[in-house]
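quick q for whoever's on today - can somebody do inverse folding on this one?? i tried earlier but teh output was garbage lol. tokens:
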């Protein structure tokens, strides 16, 4: 996918910053890259924004 967009970032207490959406896992769940950290994110259709969890949703592989 590699789509650059804005998201609410967990480590920034919900402030917005740029992410890159890497993969759609289905059911509004995504794998994203935030400043070199691969992590999980969700998309909220009501607010039309992503929420990236770069603290507890880190992906290490």
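ok took a stab at it. sequence:
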């Amino acid at each position: 996918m590699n789509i650059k967009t804005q998201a609410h970032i967990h480590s920034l207490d919900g402030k917005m910053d740029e992410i890159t959406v890497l993969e759609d896992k289905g059911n509004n769940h995504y794998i994203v890259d935030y400043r070199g950290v691969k992590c999980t994110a969700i998309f909220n259709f009501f607010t039309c924004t992503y929420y990236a969890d770069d603290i507890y949703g880190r992906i290490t592989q």
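fwiw Strands lie at 3-9, 16-26, 29-34, 37-44, 49-58. also The chain has one domain: 3-58. so keep that in mind when u check it
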